[in-house]
Amino acid sequence: MQGRLKVIAFLSGAGWVHTWSEVYPSAWVWLVNVGVAGLILGCCKRKPVLTKWLVLVGCGLLGAAYVNTLAAWRLGEQLPITDINKVSKVQLRITSLPRLQPDSRQFQAQVLQSQPSGLPQEILVHWSSPSRKGPYAMPQYYDFPEIVPGQVWSMSLKVKPVHGARNPHAFDYEQHLFAQGVRVLGSVRGQPELLHEHVGWRPAVWAERWRYRVRARMLPHVSKHRYGGVLLALAMGDQASISPGDWELFNRAGLTHLVSISGSHVTLIAVMLAAVVSWVWRRCRWRNRPWAERYPAQHIASWTALCTAFLYCVLAGWGVPAQRTFLMLLVVVLARLSGLVLGASRVLLLAAFVIVLWDPWALLSSGFYLSFAAVAVLLFRNYWQGLALRVYQGWQRAGHGLYQAVRLQLLITVALFPLLAYLFHEISIVSPVTNAYAIPVIGSVLTPLALLLALLAVLPSGDWAADGVARCAAYLLDYVMLLTEYLISVKWAVIVSAAAPFWALLWAVLGVVVIGLPRGVVPRVSGLAMLLPALFYRPTLPAYGQWQLTALDVGQGAAIVLRTQSQVLLYDAGVRYSPNSDEGLRSIVPYLRSQAIPEIDVLVLSHADLDHVGGVSSVLQKYAVTQSWAGFDVAAFVSREERLLQRPAGTVRLPANMQLCQRGVQWEVDGVRFEFLWPSRPETDTLTPSLGQQKNSQSCVLSVQGKYHRAMILGDVGIAEEEQMVAAGLLPHELVLVGHHGSRSSSSQVFVQATQAAIAISQNGHWNQFSHPDRLVQARWLGAGALFFRSDHDGAVQVYSQPDGLWYQTERERRSRYWQLKQPGSSEG
Predict the structure, then answer these.
(1) Concatenated DSSP letters of 671-710
(2) Where in the cell is it found (predicted)?
(3) I need a labelling partner for 443 at 20 to 30 A (CA). Which of 374, 509, 653, 780 fits?
(4) Computed from CA positions of residues 286, 290, 291, 294, in that sequence, does the dihedral angle turn out positive or negative?
């Protein structure tokens, strides 16, 4: 027991470092470890109980020191400030499987030489087609040269440090790339030159090169089928060919773990091949002596399973679930061969310990916790069942086996509910049903077929057979997904769960343990009750007369969510990047889901620029809207988008009531009054591209007056419109969402003085091409006594109007982590 506690302490210390806002000098941390070791030696004879506790503390500090040291080394690689957003001449070796899109390529590379020098060693390169035609144009095929892992290229790259949006309870892009060792991003300029293809002796590069060849041979066979990308993902873990729409379908059905390389796939394939080898081995003879007498069939089966798992994990890209599965198999096989008996908890903890030693940032992956949780439920459930073993015969045995399989799947599904709710803010109610038929079909049939397809594709004369296997697998998968699409079409298929506090997750995990205990120990209904706080948690809403405003981090665009006691208002919907990517899907919908918001009561769309309304179609597809106010014809805009995106008319559900905003229009809800201060008169013809300046001048300016404070959201109005609002008798506003992203054409000195704002927020993209916010504008707000926040430096900004004052928090400060890009202070004033 003491050994397991020590491993848990080490893992806890390692995970503790990932909550720090900065790392510390390694010498200091190791000095603390030396001090604790000295205390242990001094107390080991006189105070044995205290010594045991000190040993656990020492193990935790050892884990923290280990991760702190590695993090400090990785943070030491930084892009020089003088090189940011400038072009560097770089020689690099491609080290990852390139991500293929019709109009782009993306890959990870090792920097060999750079001019100027000082570029970090690991870089993520994006190579775009020169013929990109805008956010509505469908990707056009571009003839890129073949990009193979191991190649050495000379490229001109525009480089910048890793920076990602930071919104509450959202994906952390900076964390994701830091865990992979990537410290800089590069975009190709000009025409790169291939220097040579000498790979060297790096096993990881050879493995990626092998994966590239397998994918290249499989693509012609899978690309012609609707779910061909799933076959590619099952065989080798390449998920780039699965569309965002399909990922959403798998998430809602609870099948995501089946369409990626998971531990169950690796284990199943390893066991199947091991069983075949064991069967053959027991029946082979040499000189009238069975092979099994020379070397036991169980041992050869164990080695076969281990080698099969290793090859499959390498083909799959060696992700966290693959690492966990292989290391667990390694521990089990070595223990079995040596005659050592290990319990389930020891196997799990040893695997986790080795993974963290190998990759400390695996603790940041949701897959780490989900995969270990699923296996823990499986192992410990089997352990408890072993305490009350019964013998069944014939059909009774088969029926009992089926009953236990369904029961175990239901237990695993329920057990993972709290983690899924905490990580992804939604729970698939139909997942027990979909998994009941999908696990045997995808795990036992489609995965072996996908691997057989990969094998046949790489054989010199196996194309005809590979094509037949691909066709059979695709047809079977089509039928599986047909039933799945029907199941998730019902309204109750998915429950949205708000982001619950950490204590609710811990309480729910304890409830899962209670559910898994043998019958009669504790009533299982009490365990189900313990899940409820995590699954049905709801955030505290503002009181009557109060409001809560969240300015989301949506790059060079605008999106603000304002909540009162009973209603939700969304002002603008962010920017559109491409036909399949916009801030509505990236940031707004995930945030609304994390708050368990079922619908939008009021939608305000300031004007028809794509940095303000680019994500509106995505939002309208996910959320019903009761009332919309806009500076343009929303129905005409949505209809135009449907044509440009080549979607059927009526795909997007329009708001129930649509009106144009105009000065003087006002309404009140929950003791909070909303009023439009601009435009002076509505203008319907604001969709024409040539009228860009007119669109800005027609922005809807919204004033929000609660019981204690006022807020104003300006859209993109300029100085002329600001002066007219001041002349009309503008009242002071404690909070101002700065106009036109802090452009020099807005925020005049007269307007800034008239608002008397305590907080000013500018929504900007990092290193945007317009240099927003303008330094003069920022200085103007600071000089007037306001705190000035900008989303590119501070992330999302949340402001709460309360009786004791205007409270605020920024996401980069609330959840500050050592890997995030450090920015100069932006809230000084």
Answers:
(1) TEEEEEEE-SS--S---SGGGHHHHHHTPPEEEEE-SS-E
(2) Cell membrane
(3) 509
(4) negative
pLDDT the model gives residue 384: 56
CA gyration radius for the chain? 29
- Taking the C-alpha atoms of residue 754 and residue 761, their distance in angstroms, rounded to an integer, is 16
Instruction: State the pLDDT at residue 804.
Output: 92
Helix (H) / strand (E) element for 186: namely strand 184-196
> What is the homologous superfamily of the domain 548-814 according to CATH?
Ribonuclease Z/Hydroxyacylglutathione hydrolase-like (3.60.15.10)
Helix, strand, or coil here: 25?
coil
Among all chains, which residue has been given the structure tokens 């019903």? 624
- Scored b (16 or more CB within 10 A) or e, 256-273 reads bbbbbbbbbbbbbbbbeb
Percentage helix, strand, coil for the chain under 3-state DSSP, each rounded to 5: 50, 15, 35
Considering only CA atoms, which of 594, 552, 593, 597 is closest in space to residue 573? 552
User: Can you tell me whether residue 96 is helix, strand or coil?
Assistant: coil
pTM above 0.85, yes or no: yes
Cα–Cα distances (Å) from 632 to 37, 636, 652, in that order, read: 70, 9, 17
Closest Cα partner for 792 from 549, 552, 548? 552
DSSP state of 720: H
The helix/strand/coil state of 391 is coil
Q: Are strands 701-705 and 672-678 parallel, antiparallel or unpaired?
A: antiparallel
Which residues pair with residue 101 across a beta bridge? 104
Stated as kind and residue range, the H or E segment containing 603 is strand 600-605
Q: What letters, b where the CB count within 10 A reaches 16 and e where it falls short, cover 544-561?
A: ebbbbbbbbbbbbbbbbb
pLDDT value at residue 772: 92
Contact 431, 370 (CB under 8 A): no
Distances (CA, A) of 384 to 298, 405, 413, 518, 526: 26, 15, 18, 6, 19
Strands 426-428 and 657-660: unpaired
- Tokens representing 368? 């780490």
Question: What whole-number distance in Å separates Cα of residue 467 and Cα of residue 631?
Answer: 54
| Two structure tokens written together for 557 | 């665009």
pLDDT confidence of residue 690: 37
For 563, the token pair is: 């909540």
Q: Residue ranges of the chain with pLDDT lower than 70?
A: 1, 41-42, 44-46, 261-264, 320-321, 341, 378-410, 520, 682-694, 824-829
The two tokens of residue 471 are: 């066709």
Residue 259 · residue 233 · CB < 8 Å: yes
- Burial (Cβ within 10 Å: 0-12, 13-18, ≥19) of residue 144: middle
Whole-number Å distance between alpha carbons of 232 and 237: 7
Strand partners, 667: 674
d(CA 718, CA 703): 17
Domain definitions of the chain by residue range: 2-75, 81-200, 390-429+498-538, 548-814
- In this predicted structure, what is the pLDDT of residue 685? 52
pLDDT at 575: 95
Separation between Cα atoms, residue 352 and residue 346, nearest integer Å: 10
- Say yes or no: do domains 81-200 and 548-814 share a fold: no
pLDDT of residue 639: 93
> Helix 203-222 crosses helix 297-315 at what angle (to 10 degrees)?
80
Domain 81-200 belongs in CATH node 2.60.120: no
Closest CA to 322 of 387, 245, 385, 269: 269
**Tokens for 105?**
């390529």
What does the alpha-carbon distance between residue 417 and residue 638 come to, in Å, rounded to a whole number? 37
What is the structure's pLDDT at 381? Answer: 64
pLDDT of 51-83, one tens digit each?
788 888 888 999 999 999 999 999 988 898 889
Q: Concatenated DSSP letters for 42-79?
A: HHTTT-HHHHHHHHHHHHHHHHHHHHHHHHHHHHT---
Q: What is the distance between the alpha carbons of residues 231 and 212, in angstroms, rounded to a whole number?
A: 15
**Residue for token digits 């169950």?**
264
